[in-house]
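Dear colleagues,

For the upcoming journal club I promised to circulate an example of a predicted protein-ligand complex. I picked one with guanosine-5'-monophosphate because it came up in last month's discussion. The inputs are reproduced below in full, followed by the predicted structure.
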Amino acid sequence: MPFAYDDQNIFAKILRGEIPNDTVLETQHTLAFRDIHPQAPDHVLVIPKGPYATYDHFALAASDEEIVDFTRTLGEVARAVGAQPSEAGGGFRLISNAGEDAVQEVPHMHVHLVAGRPLGRILQPA
Ligand code: 5GP
């Protein structure tokens, strides 16, 4: 059974302005803010403003307008933090944890954008 959306989750509270955040970018449908426990010099969480619990929920239920806005905002965030890949190096990684196996802590869909140091390979052997 898929997640029901819980509007008491911490990101829902951030969206309602009940908890402060360090905003990087905000658009009509998307908010990007710095992770409170950064794993790299730049660690930004990009979230849709709509009530979506997981990436698949968002991808299948959100409007085209929300999805385009979200995707473009991810690109803008990479530029805003100076992480766009170039011949001189740089780059970033996007991660979206969904559900128990991925150890999703906050049940509001989010993509982590991490950058600012060499990130190594994405997965360790189980
Ligand atoms: P997940 O494991 O769900 O993919 O990641 C949730 C992320 O949210 C974690 O990296 C955690 O540090 C971050 N986080 C949890 N609570 C807060 C908060 O109140 N503010 C911010 N900015 N980040 C948070």
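Two points we might discuss: The mean pLDDT is 95. The first strand starts at residue 23 and ends at 26.

See you all on Thursday,
B. R.
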